[in-house]
Amino acid sequence: MHPMVKPALRRGWRDLHTVQFGMAPAHAMVLGPLDTATGGFLALLDGTRGLPLLRDEGRRMGLPEGRVDGLVERLSRSGLLDDATGGGPAADALRGKPAELDRLRPDAASLSLVAPGPGEAMRRLAARRSLHVQVRGAGRVGTVLASALAGAGVGRVDVQDGGRVEPWDVAPGGLPVESVGERREEAAQRAVRGAAPGRPPRRGGARSAAGQDGPGLSLVILAPRDGLAVHAPDPADSRPLIDSGTPHLFAGVVEGTGVVGPLVLPGDTACAGCLDLGRADRDPAWPRLLAQWRSGRQPPVPACDLTLAVTVAGLAAGHATAFLDGELPSSAGARWEISPPGLDWHARPVWQHPACPCGAGEKAEGEQTSDDEGPHETMVGQQPHAARLSGTWRAHV
User: Fold this and answer.
1) What is the mean pLDDT of each run of 10 residues along the chain (397 residues)?
2) What is the DSSP letter of 351?
3) Neighbours of 275 (CB within 10 A)
4) Which of 11, 126, 201, 244 has the most CB atoms at less than 10 Å from its CB?
5) Whether residue 17 is found in the same domain as residue 150
6) Which 8-state DSSP code applies to residue 296?
7) Which of 85, 119, 140 is the endpoint of a domain?
């Protein structure tokens, strides 16, 4: 082990015997009281020395026997310490690719703040390289989202979509203006490869994962260009994902409103079918409206503000990487929505429905339901409690 105080946290002395690590309240921590020798020893925890050398340095500085090991243990338990050589063989392999790692150093620093154990941040970052995510939709949201995941170190990100790139598909970080007129799927895959650390854009055709619904996929993200498919996803479209047990996340923009969620963990959290059945329970007109919307003509150009699309893509990518890293984001069992001009994110619970064949409703039978969205309803901030999840949904396992 080569201990180092997490470099993501800035250090400041509150007084002669008390040091604060971190500025933001979410991760700031105060350590003290410290004597002068111990305070000076902290500067040696920079990842360049192993424990034997640190013990020798501690003795030269006059620290009592056992003080170095005790300090390292305390700092490790508090989440302040990282291991410059930790993370296992996959992390060592990533360190062997310095150009790729340099691209990912900000991500590693951020992960170190939420993965408290020494070496855990690098372990999670390296684990992303073995994951496979599929994004269905190559519009303003989908391509930016897919590129963000690739840029964050996810090893394989495939994009599915049909047709050709339209001028209104172009977005910074997504499809470039030069791709207008090209096949959407190929252009999006090229953008994704260009965003990936350590891999130059591939010349010629893009690799496609068409027809793959589950096996080998860590996560599927449904980011349709059609706003109706975001607002009211057809349960039949995600049925193969439910049947194969594949986690999937919805994201997109509908009539100027951004939507992220729900993250569906088949059998554990509410799915598109639960959402549809719950709406029909609360609004008798819902099936009639939905039939008209699905049979009507789609607007030629979607209402999709560029900054809103990028915001949605960023939040969805954040929820996706949290799940891929082994956490449970707040989109599990909820839809996050945002609308201009206020641009405030609100969460709407999506409850498991007992009549839905996905099976999640059997676990939630008897739970109280909550109002879903209506044309003039107030958004609710409560989210379904996710503690009942078994803990088996860990994409890197």
Assistant:
1) 91 92 90 90 93 94 91 90 93 93 94 90 94 96 97 95 95 95 96 85 43 73 94 94 95 95 94 95 95 86 92 97 95 94 92 89 52 40 34 39
2) -
3) 24
4) 126
5) no
6) S
7) 85
State the pTM of this model: 0.86
Domains: count for the chain:
2
CATH number at residue 266: 3.40.50.720
Strand partners, 260: 251, 336
Angstrom distances, CA of residue 114 to CA of 27, 59, 376 = 9, 33, 38
Q: Report yes or no: 365 and 312 within 8 Å, Cβ to Cβ.
A: no
* Helical H segments across 42-81, by residue range: 51-60, 67-78
Query: Which structural domain, as residue segments, surrounds residue 47?
Result: 3-85
Rounded Cα gap, residues 388 and 386, in angstroms: 5
Which one of 54, 85, 116 terminates a domain?
85
**For the chain, percent helix, then strand, then coil, each to nearest 5?**
40, 15, 45
Alpha carbon distance, N-terminus to C-terminus of the chain: 24
